[in-house]
Amino acid sequence: MPVRLFGKMDCMRARYLFLPDFSVRQALFVDSKAEHISGQRTATIQTAQTSMKIRQWRQRSIVEEEGKLPIVIPTQRGELLTTTIFVNYNYTEETNSKSNQLLSINILCLPNGLLQERYNPNPDDTIWLAGRNAPSRGEAFRVRISLPRLKFKQRWRVQSILLSPSVPFIWDD
After folding, report:
1. Which of 73, 77, 86 minimizes the C-alpha distance to 143?
2. Distance of CA 24 to CAs 3, 83, 115, Å?
3. Of the chain's two ends, which shows fewer C-beta atoms within 10 Å, N or C?
4. Which one, of 22, 25, 23, 26, lies nearest residue 12 by Cα?
5. To 5 degrees, how large is the angle CA 74–CA 75–CA 76?
6. What are phi and psi of 94, to 5 degrees?
7. pTM
8. Which of 106, 56, 100, 80 is nearest to 2 (CA)?
9. Residue 127 near residue 148, CB atoms below 8 Å
10. Those residues with Cβ within 8 angstroms of residue 167's Cβ, 6 or more apart along the chain or in another chain
C-alpha cells in the first residue's frame, strides 16, 4: 500500500492483511535490537513505540504514561491498525576475543492499545517493568516489557528461538 509511515522503528510498512473472513489495513512497525543474554527476559521500548498506556508501579507510586503511537493511523487510503513487533537478538560476549556469540532470538508482538484492558487494566495487572532511564538526568521515559508476563497473557505473542542444533524451534501457540 503506497502510504508513508513515520516513527522510531527500524521498519515501517503500510499493508493489507488478508484473513479468511476479512482484510485489515495495517501499519506494521518492526524494531530490532541486540541485548546481552542477561536481558533476554525483557525488551526495552520507548513510549513512541507503543499505542498502549503504560500502567505500572514505580517507586511506590502509580505511573500512567501514554503511548505515543496511535491505535489507528488515519490516512488518505483509510485507517491503518497499528501493529508493533520487536525482535531481540540475545548474545554473550566471548572472553578471549572481541566478538559476540548470538545465542537466541526473541520475537514479540506488542498488543495494540485497543487491547489495553486485557493486557494492562491496572498497575497491578501489567506486562510492564521499569525502564532503563534516569529521570534525575532528564532522560526520556522508557519501559521494559516482561516477556514472561506477556507470554502468560497470550502465548503466541512471544516466540523464542534458541540457536542450537540440538533444540528445534517450535511455534508456541
Report:
1. 86
2. 14, 11, 16
3. C
4. 26
5. 135
6. -75, 130
7. 0.89
8. 80
9. no
10. none
Q: Give the position of cell 503511537.
A: 69
Full set of structural domains in the chain with CATH? 11-32+41-87+106-161 (3.40.600.20)
pLDDT, tens digit, 9 for 90 and up, residues 84-118: 999 999 999 887 777 888 999 999 999 999 999 99
Grid look-up 497470550 returns 154
Distance from the Cα of residue 100 to its chain's centroid? 24
**Which grid cell is 142?**
522508557
What nine digits make up the cell of 12? Answer: 515501517
What pLDDT score does 130 carry? 87
Written as nine digits, the cell of 7 is: 516513527
Q: Which residues contact 154 (CB under 8 A, 6 or more apart)?
A: 111, 119
End-to-end CA distance of the chain: 29
